[in-house]
Amino acid sequence: MATIEIKNVSLTYRVLKNKTGSLKELFRDLLHRKVRVQNYVALKDVSFTVNSGEVIAIIGKNGAGKSTLLKILAQVLPPTKGKAKVTGSIAPMIELGAGFHPEMTGAENVLFYSTLMGRDMNKTKARTAAIGEWAGVTDHMDFPLRTFSSGMVARLAFATATDETADVLLIDEVLSVGDADFQLKSSARMSELIKKGAAVVLVSHDMNAVRKLASKAIWLENGVVKMSGPAKKVVAAYEKQ
């Protein structure tokens, strides 16, 4: 049974085209039925499955729909059409640090972020010091997050998200976080989680990482699947364009 099952998934945004300068003008246009709305198709009829212990890469240019697809998998966005079924716990590594608050300390953010992922607070409390140490930010854990550099925030978010083994990992370019040593360290942890049976969806512009980590790949173009199949074959076609 597949851990991730995406069947004919589409997502359409409704975009307001009125160029109004204020809410008052917008309400006036609403009253006079002058509001112009355009549908923007971000994804159209995307289908694939990912089994436990399998890595699938989503590739494509910026705006192709890759991050939108990850947000559907993370249950942040509901699809307009189709079925998106994810079985088990999810560790979403999308826009690392997006679930953090700048006025909370590093330790408080670890607890807050873990709670958002549905983890046990008492267990997380016992792991907070180890998470900070793994991220290399031990000396800053009692300081507000606004005092952290962007790299420190990303490392702490990555360490928190991967501290427990999840059934599903959603990865958006996070393997490029930090310096070379941390990238090696994070890649090793990712490999460890994959070996433990996590189903992984990887979004990356790094084709070497895709070839190394993924067994299958999906090439998205303007929200549509242009090609899918063995990762090396899809990457080779993508690089020839």
TrEMBL record:
Annotated ranges, domain ABC transporter: 25-240
Species for this entry: Candidatus Planktophila limnetica
Family named by the database record: Belongs to the ABC transporter superfamily.
GO MF annotation terms: ABC-type transporter activity; ATP binding; ATP hydrolysis activity
Signal peptide residue numbers: none
One Pfam family this sequence matches: ABC_tran
Protein name in the entry: Lipopolysaccharide transport system ATP-binding protein
Keyword ATP-binding attached: yes
UniProtKB keywords: ATP-binding, Nucleotide-binding, Transport
CDD domains found in the cross-reference section: ABC_KpsT_Wzt
